[in-house]
Amino acid sequence: MKKITLFLALFAFGFTFAQAPLEEGGLQLNAGVGATGWGASVYGGVEYGLLPDITIGAEASYHSYNHDYFGSSYDYKSNIIGIQANGSYHFNELLQIPSEFDVYAGANLNYFSWTTKVNGEKVNSYNGEDNFGLGLHAGGRYFFTDNFGVNVQVGGGNVFSGIKAGITYIF
């Protein structure tokens, strides 16, 4: 019984001292899955603490989906690779949010390379100036420890508007 009590006390202690948002000069990794109108995605990214409440970052994503074209018998499959630069403002200090939470919003610049195959044969490749876009995002994180947390984010204003969720690790 003493071991269980000690374990629970240490576990709770770990939750109590989580720190957010990312400090100036700090680095964090984010990874997870997303859902958009164009299918499921996986993503990975890095953020850097530029100023006390401002971060900048980069992200890469992969989207894939199968669809039919107005009930046709053709098998359409699209694959999309995305690269994104982002900037976020973190509201913790302004709104006096507890340090285990991180609430943020910002803007991003996106580039997506999109390829579609019909019955296994490449028919379209969308790579041009129309593949760039601007978007907005808002999200939050909950940190279990000083270094590890979970995140959820919604975004809009570009072709991949949707929601994503994952994990965050601070170095």
Description:
Pfam families: OMP_b-brl. Keywords: Signal. This is Outer membrane beta-barrel protein. It comes from Mariniflexile gromovii. This protein has 171 residues and is mainly beta. The chain has one domain: Porin (Beta Barrel). The protein has two helices and nine strands. It has an eight-stranded antiparallel β-barrel with strand order 1-2-3-4-5-7-8-9.
Low-confidence stretches: 1-18
How much of the polypeptide forms β-strand, as a percent range?
Answer: over 45%
Q: Would you report the number of β strands?
A: 9
- Computed structural class: mainly beta
Straight-line N-to-C gap: 35 Å
Order of helices and strands: HEEEEHEEEEE
Round the mean pLDDT to the nearest integer and report it. Answer: 82
Rg (C-alpha, Å): 20 Å
Any idea of the CATH topology?
Porin
- Total of DSSP H or I helical runs spanning 4+ residues: 2
The biggest beta sheet is recorded as: 8 strands, antiparallel, barrel
How is the largest sheet built, in terms of strand order?
1-2-3-4-5-7-8-9
